[in-house]
């Protein structure tokens, strides 16, 4: 877009839009689900370590060297697992997650385009209303020759390419120019 103001407005709208933030959040979530599903295709290794401290009862069934004493218990475990995907269940889950990720990405792109289109429509509508107001102002300001001012406005509209030059009766132009401009 060749207008720096419009570019800045679009960038601000995209940066501050709650819809875009939600779309980005959904895309991050879809990516993490793909990662989780892809992790099932390969080997999985788990490591656990724990430490516990326990005091044995003084009057229990244990003999006196252990009775009433504190003991530390250390546990370390390592587990390896690999689920072989004979029937393609895990690959199908990964493919479904990738498809969902693509769909969420397209929804995010659609949200971006809708927001950009809305900003452009509002901006061009504002420019058009301001442009129409400035074209009608010379006819009101001149006051002495409203027919000439209206014809000049028609020439400007034709030069810009908005509307063809109107063919009006000078008396009708006088009536139109004397009406208040909204």
From TrEMBL:
Keywords: Lipoprotein, Membrane, Palmitate, Signal, Transmembrane, Transmembrane beta strand. Its main location: membrane. Transmembrane segments: none annotated. InterPro entries: MdtP/NodT-like, OMP_efflux. This is Outer membrane efflux protein. One of its GO terms (cellular component) is membrane. Belongs to the outer membrane factor (OMF) (TC 1.B.17) family. One of its GO terms (molecular function) is efflux transmembrane transporter activity. Pfam families: OEP. Residues 173-182 have a biased composition (Polar residues). It comes from Paludibacterium denitrificans. Residues 142-182 are annotated as: Disordered. It is found in: Membrane.
């Amino acid at each position: 877009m060749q207008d720096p103001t419009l570019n800045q407005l679009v960038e601000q709208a995209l940066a501050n839009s709650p819809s875009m933030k939600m779309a980005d959040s959904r895309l991050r979530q879809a990516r993490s689900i793909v990662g989780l599903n892809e992790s099932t295709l390969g080997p999985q290794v788990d490591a656990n370590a724990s430490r516990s401290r326990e005091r044995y009862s003084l009057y229990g069934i244990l003999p006196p060297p252990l009775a009433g004493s504190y003991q530390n218990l250390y546990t370390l475990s390592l587990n390896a697992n690999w689920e072989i995907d004979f029937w393609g269940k895990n690959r199908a889950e990964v493919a479904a997650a990738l498809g969902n990720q693509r769909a969420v990405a397209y929804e995010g792109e659609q949200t971006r385009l809708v927001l950009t289109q809305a900003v452009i429509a509002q901006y061009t509508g504002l420019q058009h209303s301001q442009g129409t107001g400035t074209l009608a102002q010379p006819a009101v300001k001149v006051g002495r020759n409203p027919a000439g001012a209206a014809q000049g406005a028609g020439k400007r509209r034709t030069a810009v390419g908005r509307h063809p030059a109107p063919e009006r009766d000078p008396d009708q132009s006088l009536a139109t120019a004397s009406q208040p401009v909204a």
